[in-house]
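Ticket #4471: structure export looks truncated?
Reporter: QA, pipeline team
Priority: medium

Steps to reproduce: submit the single chain below to the structure queue and open the exported record.
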Amino acid sequence: MASSQEEYDNFAYLLPPSWKTQVTAWLQEDTPSFDYGGFVVGEAPREAFLLGKGKQTAVLAGAPFFTEVFTQVGCEVEWHLREGETFEPVKHVATVRGKARHILLGERVALNMLARCSGIATQSKKIKDLARGCGYQGVVAGTRKTTPGFRLVEKYGMLVGGIDPHRHDLSSMIMLKDNHIWSSGSITNAIAQARKVGGFSLLLEVEVGSEAEADEAIAAGADIIMLDNIEGAELAGVARRLKDKWQGKRTFLFESSGNITEANLHERAINEIDILSTSAVHQSVQHIDFSLKIQKPKN
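Actual output as written to the record:
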């Protein structure tokens, strides 16, 4: 049977075999000993409504993690929205069924995760839409400035929101920043040393702060040049001049990063730049408000 496009877009298929152990750790952290509230409510079968609240249009993200939280405490989740779907508050997003104390065991862990993941997806979509509205056709990406222990969820939220999550860790790409350059003596030396061990399969990116440094990085064979905190007319000028100079001689991409916000995005969203990366989609992002309400028995 042919697979649907919806199945191909199922980001849960990306998750590594270890991801469920992270959910287990969240639950262990939240209930390290006695569950006093659970003693009070007991094990009567109950149904709870997941409500998307707040005051803004939001993107739902984090459904696999939410479902796994409740699977591990013996409950079932029925979703009324698809992952990545946009909704207006107040919205009945899902229904959780199980024993009362089991629902409450998973409640706060699941809600906290969903609030942050959906907040990242919502902001990612907003930033990308703003960039496209400026006529920008390149890649919009997040950064590696993620929360330790929560990176998988945050990178997942970026994907659901429609942007590139950027490199995931130190092993998934070679990135040489100012400290690497200073420690090795020069951009050229740093690139040469990295190429010895990185091999052909890893892209190599170099952070630079000037046109001269960018030119050296290109000459030394960098795949991506991050023009860090270079803004305005200077940004476009540097990118244009170097692309003209190296046309037909080197293949590379320009990335602009550093201090990119909603307010100044229009200044950086220029098509001379191939990648726009910003931590504004995941650091200090506004969470989406969700609540889980156990329903009173109808009889």
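Status: closed, not a bug. The export was complete when the record was re-opened. Leaving a note from the reviewer for reference: Confidence is low (pLDDT under 50) at residues 1-5.
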